[in-house]
Amino acid sequence: MAGGRNVPVACLAAWPLIAVLAGGCRPPPPDTQRPKVGTDPCAERLHDVCGHLLLYYQIHKRLPPTLKQLKSSDVLPLPPLVCPVSGKPYVYEPQGLLLRGQPGRLVLYDPEPSHSGIRWGILVGTSARGDSIIPCVIAVTEEQLASATTQPAPEPPDKQ
Description:
This protein is of the alpha+beta class. It contains 3 helices and 4 strands.
């Protein structure tokens, strides 16, 4: 019995140690965390551009040669094609860049790492049937961009 009474005391004595250890597991302060897609105005803007790229692809079966081909409409207004933080135009690569560890190609991205050291970009993959694209907004590190390659895009299945 005496041993049973010491267990709760030993557990209580361990709580300060657990609290100290848990304190080391806290996330970094908010200013050093990576921005999130749903809260960053640049990522939100690029998300809107994804809709325009998807619509253009559905009509023309290719991405536009330049961003000037994207049109605004009453239903789908085209946002300004500049980063709202830096004020600089987005970089457009219609053939896309291959990023290590990412499926698809990076076709549009921030001109500089203005978002806590990262750039936002649009990565475009293809559907399983190959008849459509799947654009998504991703965070791109400087290391990913520096190691990107520009291999030619594969031909669509119907042209091979």
